[in-house]
Each structure stands twice: as C-alpha cells, then as structure tokens.
Amino acid sequence: MASSTKLFSLTLLFLGLIALSNAQSLSLTYYSKTCPKVEYIVKKETNKIIAVAPTLAAPLLRMHFHDCFVRGCDGSVLINSTTNNQAEKDGFPNLSLRGYGSIDRVKTAVEKECPGVVSCADILALVARDATLALHGPFWPVPLGRRDGRVSIANETLVNLPPPFFNITQLKASFASKNLTAKDLVVLSGSHTIGTSHCSSFTNRLYNFTGRGDSDPSLDPNYAALLRTRCSPTDQTTLVEMDPGSFKTFDEDYYTLVAKRRGLFTSDSALLADAETREYVLRQARTKGSTFLEDFAESMVKMGKIGVLTGSQGEVRRRCAFVN
C-alpha cells in the first residue's frame, strides 16, 4: 500500500514538472518570425467585434477560463461534437457560452496572413485579453506557443468547472487543483464586473432557499426582492446584469456590490466567508480597486499557463471547431 501511494505521488510530481516545463516554454516572442503581425491582427478583429457587440466581451473572457480549467488552455472548448463524441462545448456548464463565431472570424484573419502557424488556443487567449481591454480593462502580456488539443469530452466540464453555487471551501479546492491561489480566486471573480447571467444560475437563492419560502440570507434582502421582479422561479431565458449599471465597463464595482451582499451568485457571496478573500473584497471596495487591474492582469497570465501543450504535443488546428 505504501509503495503504491509513493508511486502515485511520484506520478503526480512528474506530471507537475511536465506542466511547469510546458508553461515555461511559452514566450512573448514565439511568433516573432513565423507570424509577427498576429497580435495586431487579433486586436484589430476583436475591436471590430466588440465595437458592434460589446456584450460579447464577457463571454469571450469566460470562454478562455472554461478552456483552461478543462484539460488546460488547449482550445478544446472550441471543438465541435461528433456522432461518436459529445465535446466540451455541449457540456452543461458550457451551454451558455457565446462567441465561437468570433473566434472563427479572428482565426480566419490570422490564417490569411500566416496559414497553419497560430493555434486556436493562442488566439482564444489573445481575444480574451483584447476583449477585456476594449471594455477599459487592463492589458496583460500573453505568452504564446500553446498547441491545440485533440480531445474534448463534455463530462469533463462537470468535474473541472466550478459552478455558481459552490461555497468557499469548494471554490478554493477547485482553484488549488489548477495551481491557483485564494488570491487568484477572488481576483478572477472580479471578471463578473462585465456581462450578464441567466436567471437559472441564481434563482435558487431567491425562492424557498431553506424550504421555508425564504431567500438566501447571505443575499441583501432588498436586492433579492428586486431580482424576484426580474426572474420567476422557472425562468430559463431572462438575462440579468452581473454588475448593474456598468456591466459593459471593466471596473472595480463588482467588489463594492459583493461587500454590500449584492453579488449575484452563491460563489460571489462565498468570497465574504473566508478571511483572505473577504479582506481583498473589502479593500478593493474601500480603495476603489486600487490594485485590482494590476492583480487581474497577473492572475490572467498565470491562468493562461494551466496545462498547456507545447512543442510537438497536440497540433495547430486549421479550423478551431475541428481536429485536423
């Protein structure tokens, strides 16, 4: 038994070293000779998309997160299902994702300049950055050189993506499994400053929360009452702003809302249930996000290195929805 435990530990260590080595293989100058204009092309196309449809910025940022948390940042979230396999994009947590056509549009523009060179995983990472920047969010350097994965399995989304009803213990464990810290958790949760959510992601907090016809006590009762005017118990279609009033601007307002117990999801309110994450929320609310943009940029670079494929691993997909 002891030897098998030791073997398992050594295997985990080995895999961890491979992941670290792959992450270190990414480079800011990866395409400097093979596709030097890639960042210019991606930014130009992304700006055109967001100018017409600013509400796509949040889904594109979220898509990158959902990609990285399942099999690493390998573009597997973009692969279509086949008759023999249900892919990640058809997993329940991803059914509300939008923006696949935008990624295809950017990929087409890049392919025209540099055919068969830039991976879909790298394009998604760049689009997430540029879409955030287009809504006045921070800039962060995106190390490049990710390869595209060939495997995409819907059921893996259920195991790897933290749902909106997770408590703080579950959230910290989920992030720790990806080598992200409690600080990364509270910082990346700040992405909820942009975008919308379907009522179905939080109506459990509004109706009969404990079986006595009440709402979640961790949610401000006045806000709960307001949300009930927007969402019926069975509403599956209505969209609600996650950061009311500034959901198209990437700012620190999210933390002000969470501090007032007006975070939309259980996972937002959960940030007040831990000393470290609560301190961060209250500090950003008090100082008008004094370090939030800088912290967000740092955590995004870190997240973008999760489980990457590099070198001869994987492939560079010609079309993001299809394995070569």
From TrEMBL:
Keyword Acetylation set for record: no
Membrane spanning residue stretches: none
Protein name, entry field: Peroxidase
InterPro entries the record matches: Haem_peroxidase (IPR002016), Haem_peroxidase_sf (IPR010255), Peroxidase_pln (IPR000823), Peroxidases_AS (IPR019794), Peroxidases_heam-ligand_BS (IPR019793), Secretory_peroxidase (IPR033905)
Cofactor(s) the protein needs: Ca(2+); heme b
Residues that, per the record, bind heme b: 192
Domain called Plant heme peroxidase family profile: residue spans: 25-324
Site (Transition state stabilizer): 62
Gene Ontology biological process terms from the UniProt entry: hydrogen peroxide catabolic process; response to oxidative stress
Recorded family membership: Belongs to the peroxidase family. Ascorbate peroxidase subfamily. Belongs to the peroxidase family. Classical plant (class III) peroxidase subfamily.
Species, as recorded: Salvia divinorum
Biological role: Removal of H(2)O(2), oxidation of toxic reductants, biosynthesis and degradation of lignin, suberization, auxin catabolism, response to environmental stresses such as wounding, pathogen attack and oxidative stress. These functions might be dependent on each isozyme/isoform in each plant tissue.
Cofactor: how and how many bound: Binds 2 calcium ions per subunit.
Primary localisation category: secreted
Encoding gene per record: PER27
